[in-house]
Amino acid sequence: MKTLIAIVAWCLLFVLCWPLALLALVLWPVVWLLALPFRLVGITFSALFAFLQALLLLPARLLGGRSGPQYANRATA
């Protein structure tokens, strides 16, 4: 769905201002390449925080602590 919206927006831009649409088409790979390191850093930090959370919650899990929403409905049962 996101791709369809992007294509329709580009077609609309092409009708309204074709030089700008062609410039956007040519510069999009450059922008994608410039954004790639930031995406990799974001993935790395996300993995690091997930690891730290698992590491900090490990003692509670080993001692039988309940974790997360999977046990949310146990109080009513």
Question: Would you report the number of β strands?
Answer: 0
List segments where confidence is low: pLDDT < 50 over at least 5 consecutive residues: none
Tell me about the biggest sheet?
none
Principal-axes geometry comes out as elongated
- Structural class label: mainly alpha
If you average the pLDDT, what whole number results?
87
User: Whole-Å distance between the termini?
Assistant: 40 Å
Instruction: Give me the Rg, rounded.
Output: 23 Å
Fraction in helix: over 70%
Order of helices and strands: HH
Strand content: under 5%
DSSP helix count? 2
Keywords: Membrane, Transmembrane, Transmembrane helix
Transmembrane segments: 7-30, 36-58
Description:
This protein is mainly alpha-helical and 77 residues long. It contains 2 helices and no strands. The protein starts with a helix and ends in a 15-residue tail after the last helix. The mean pLDDT is 87.
Summarize this structure as a short list of keywords or feature phrases:
single chain, 77 residues, 2 helices, mainly alpha, transmembrane, transmembrane helix, membrane, elongated
